[in-house]
Structures
1.
Amino acid sequence: MAHVMFTRGCPFNCNFCSSGNRYVQFRCPKNIRNELIFLKEKYKIEGFAIVDDNAIINKKKTMEYCALIEDLNLKWSALSRVDTVNREILESMSTSGCIEIKYGIESGSQKILDMMNKKISLDQIKHTVRLTKHFGIKVKAFIIHGFPGEDLETTQETIQLLKEIHQFIDRITVFRFVPLPGSPVYENYREFNIHGTHYHKEWDGNWNRFRIYNNDTHWWGSHDDYLNVKKSYNLLISYVKSIFPDEI
Ligand code: SF4
C-alpha cells in the first residue's frame, strides 16, 4: 500500500490541533487518479491510505474522487470528522473501496468536546459510527485524554461512550493531550491554564517534548489536577485494554 494526500489544510479550528484554520487546497480528481494508476502499475499497490489531517471536507469533491477511483479496485482508508460524512458519502466511499475511516472522536464528555472547540455532539458520534459500519467500513477511533479540564468525571463519560459504541469500533488509539506548537491552546496557553514555563518565545527546536504517545508531562493546572489526569488516564487505558486487547 501507499500513503497519499488528496487535500491540504483544514477549515475547522479544534483547540488542540496545529493543522486547523488553514485554507484548503484540493487536488484535481484526475491528477489523483493518474497517481494511483502509476502506483498500481509501478509498485503493484493493492491499497492506499489518505493521510490528510481531515480528508472528507467537501461532499462534492469526495463524491468526485470516489467515482473516479472506483474502477481501480484499490482498498483505501482516510481520516475524517464525524459530522462531515452522511449516508450518501459513506455509500459512495464504500463502493469505491474504502475499508476504514479514522474518526476524531476525541472524548465522550460534551464539556471537553466543547472546550476543544470540536463542534461535534455525542449523538453525531454515535450516529456516524453506526452508519459507517452499516456500509461495511471499519471504524478506527482517535481519543485524546487530558485536555485542560479533564478529570475523573469526564473520563468516566468517555468510558461510558466507548461502552455504548465499542461494537462499532474496530481499532482505537488513545493519545495524551499535548499543547502542540501552532495549536490554539499553545498560542493562548494562559486562557487554558497551561504552564508558561513550558513555553519559550525562542523556539528551541526540541519536538521531543511534544510527542503525543505516552507523554505524561504536567502541562496544566495544579498538582492535584495532574494526579487526577494521571489516575483517570490509567482508568481509561485499562478499560480500553479490556475491550481492545490488541490495540494499546
Ligand atoms: S482535529 Fe481535524 S477537524 Fe479539527 S482542526 Fe485538526 S484536522 Fe481539522
Note: The chain has one domain: 2-243.
2.
Amino acid sequence: MFVVIFVSLHERLNEIPPSGIRRLFDLASRSHNVISLGIGEPDFDTPEHIKSYAREALDRGVTHYTPNSGLKELREAISRKLKEENSVQADPEDEIIVTTGGNQAFLLVWSSFLDHGEEVLIPSPHFVTYSATVRLAGGIPVEIPLSSEGGFRFSGEDLERYITPRTRAVVINSPNNPTGAVLSDKEIRSIVDVALSHGLLIISDEVYESLVYDDTRHVSPASINGASGSVITVNSFSKTYAMTGWRIGYAAGPAPFISKMVKFQMYLSACPTSFAQYAAALALSDPRSKQSTEAMRCEYRRRRDFIYGRLKRMPNIQVAKPGGAFYIFPSVGGDDLALSERLLTEAQVAVVPGSTFGSAGRGHLRLAYTLPIEKLEVAMDRLEKFFEDSRKGDFNHKG
Ligand SMILES: Cc1ncc(COP(=O)(O)O)c(C=O)c1O
C-alpha cells in the first residue's frame, strides 16, 4: 500500500537552511574594510528614465491594487518583448503573470503543478531558491551534478540519466548563477528534446539573458518548435535594468499553470507594487533602456576579463572563463566554507562558498564582479597575497 506522509509547511521550513549568502553578507557588513564580492546584484543605479516613470506613476495616482496577474499594460509589454526578443508567444490575457521579483515566481510555479513527492531535476551548482521552493511545495529536488571540467554545462544525454518515473520537471538556468555558464543552442535543443520525449515540464530561468559575452547567444527553450506548451519561462527586471529593489519579475507559460499561479498570488501579496509595475511597462518600450543595459553589459564584460585574468595567475586556483551573468566560480579545492571564512577575516574579501549552491559547488568560490574595477583590483591584490602566502606554507586552506 502506498502511504503518503503529509508534512506541514512549518516543518518543511524547519528543514530548509537559511541562505548561506545572507549569513556571509551579515558577517561582511560588520567590518568597514571588507570588499564584498558576495551579493549578486548590480552596483549600477536604475537608469534615470525608469526612475522618472515611477515618479510619474506616483503623480498620476497609480498607487492602488493592480489585477492579481499584474498591470495589463505591463503584461502586454512583456508579451511584445517575449515575441520580439525571444521568439516566444505568450498571451498577455492568461499566459503571463507579473511577480514580486523572479524569486517569488518559483514557489508559485511549483505550486501550479507539482504533486507531493514528485522530483524536479536541478543542474548543480544552482541558484539557492530552486531547491528550497521545490521542498516547500512538497516536491523533491534532485541534483544533476555538473563539473568545472565540463564547463558546468549539460545536454539532453546528461539529463536522461537522472529521469525516474517520479520526475516531473527540469530547471534550465542559462546564463547561470553561480557559474556564469551559458548553454549553447545545441545543448538547449537536446535538453528540450529529451524533456519533451519524457513528458517533463521545463522551467527556464532567464534572468541573466541580457548578460551574455563573446560569441554565444541566449536561447529561450520556449522558442523551440513544439516546446511552448511545456515551458514556463521566468524572468525579471532586476539584473537587466539594475532594478533589484523594485521587485518586479514575471513568468510566462501555458494558461492552466499561470491561472493557478495567479490564484496563489491573490492570497500571497495580491499583486506586485503598482507604481513599480507602471515604470517597468514603460521601461520595456523605451529604447533608452536597451542602451543602458548594453552599457552595463560592456562594463561587466570588461570586469570579467580583468578578474578572470587575475584569478588565472593565482596559485592553487583553477578557473574557467564565464560566458555570461556577473559571476566567476573558481575551483579552490578543499573546504570552501572554511576558506571563505578565512578570506573574510584574513584577506578582508567576502566571497560565497560554492557549496551554498548545491553539492557540485563544493571546493569552489563564487565571486560576483559587481564592483568598479578599481575595487576589484584591490580585492584581487588581497586574494593573490593570501594564496601566495598559502603556497609558501604559512597556512593551508585545504583544511
Ligand atoms: C538565477 C536567478 N534567478 C532568479 C533570481 C531572482 O531575482 P529577482 O527576485 O531579483 O528577480 C536571481 C537573483 O539573484 C538569480 O540569480
Note: Residues 40, 101-103, 127, 173, 177, 205, 207, 236, 238, 244, 249 surround pyridoxal-5'-phosphate (CB under 6 Å).
